[in-house]
Specification:
Layout lengths: L2 E5 L7 H8 L10 E6 L1 H10 L7 E3 L14 E5 L14 H21 L2 E4 L4 H6 L7 H9 L5 E5 L4 E4 L6 H4 L5 H17 L7 E5 L14 H16 L4 E6 L1 H4 L2 H6 L2 E4 L2 H12 L4 E5 L4 E5 L16 H18 L1
Parallel strand pairs: 1-2, 1-5, 2-4, 3-4, 5-12, 7-10, 8-9, 8-10
Antiparallel strand pairs: 6-7, 6-11, 11-12
Helix pairs in contact: 3-5, 7-8
């Protein structure tokens, strides 16, 4: 049986609410083994606060003992943080420490069982207060796995975007785009579309950095010097499918282009996330491609402003669970 491990995220956000509303008795009636990694007291307190009926919990004392896990229940691996309390809507060091420890344990045990990891939202400031100096989940998990070749993909079903650079200031983007990076990220994207998504002939649009793809160098030279040669080399590296670009963003994301494109390779964060969220906000999934571990998460953050109000939309989180199962299944076939 396949394991799906779920980290609690920031307890002062909507993470536990997402988990509780998704892991209903009906949802758990599958052959998959679902395990939450977090603080059990806070988890059950959140259920009581929000008047959510919590399914049966099976406590996991030895996370490596396969016989201790059950189907049709919430398996729970508890992390004890002395003095931990709910303080909804606020970034707190102990909550950040718990979210970081849950990621560490989640990666460790998911890798051990060759399962998937679904991560509830963290607050980066809280994570830093807790002693973990990472810009986000992606970089944190990659370092824990000691793997450098990874790619952030935002999957909204009707549109998928993959990022050449991730959490950088706009002023730093140009200096961090190289032919080698475009080829590396492009090949990870191509491989994941073929192997994780079963797309035999992927069509991948590569976006330009500058307006109008620089108009032959009038607005920069990155297209001519870096992106165009990178696209040419990518097409030489594949037998099926095609990389197209560099294409200006103002035409790349028209409806006709989106309908005909399997994925976009974008140069920086907001270039891809703005169209992604316009078309798929509330439904999209963050998938970290290229890692030995299947890892997904929802497309939103901790939502401190609505934490504890019981009104969070679970569609993106549920889609992240379903996508983890889908990709894990494709990798094992």
């Amino acid at each position: 049986m396949d394991h799906i491990f779920i980290t609690c995220g920031d307890i002062n956000g909507v993470g536990n609410e997402l988990i509780l509303k998704t892991l209903t008795d009906d949802f758990l009636r599958t052959d998959y083994i679902y395990t939450v990694i977090g603080n059990k007291d806070i988890f059950t307190k959140t259920a009581e606060l929000l008047s959510i009926s919590c399914p049966q919990i099976n406590d996991i004392s030895d996370m490596y003992d396969a016989s201790g896990y059950k189907t049709n229940v919430i398996n729970f691996f508890n992390i004890d943080i002395p003095g931990l309390e709910l303080d909804l809507g606020k970034a707190e060091p102990k909550a950040g420490k718990l979210s970081g420890m849950a990621i560490i344990k989640g990666v460790e045990i998911a890798a051990h069982f060759k399962g998937a990891l679904v991560t509830a939202p963290i607050n980066k400031y809280s994570l830093h207060l807790g002693g973990y100096d990472y810009p986000g989940h992606t970089e944190f998990i990659a370092e824990l796995l000691n793997e450098n070749d990874f790619l952030m993909i935002l999957d909204g079903d009707i549109i998928r975007v993959a990022l050449v650079t991730t959490h950088l200031a706009i002023s730093d983007v140009s200096n961090n785009i190289t032919q080698e990076k475009i080829i590396n990220k492009g090949m990870i994207l191509y491989k994941t579309l073929v192997e994780d998504y079963n797309i035999e002939y992927p069509k991948i649009v590569v976006c330009s950095l500058n307006p109008h793809a620089s108009d032959n160098g009038l607005f920069g030279t990155e297209e001519k010097d870096i992106i165009e040669p990178g696209v040419e080399r990518l097409n030489k590296n594949i037998e099926k499918g095609k990389f197209i670009g560099p294409i200006p963003s103002d035409t790349a994301f028209t409806k006709n282009n989106v309908d005909r494109t399997d994925a976009y390779l974008v140069m920086y964060h907001d270039q891809g996330l703005i169209p992604l969220k316009l078309l798929s906000f509330g439904n999209a999934v963050n998938f970290t491609a290229g890692l030995s571990l299947v890892r997904t998460s929802p497309d939103h953050g901790t939502a401190y402003d609505i934490a504890g109000k019981g009104i969070v939309d679970i569609k993106s989180f549920k889609n992240a669970m379903d996508k983890a199962v889908f990709i894990l299944g494709n990798r094992k076939n």
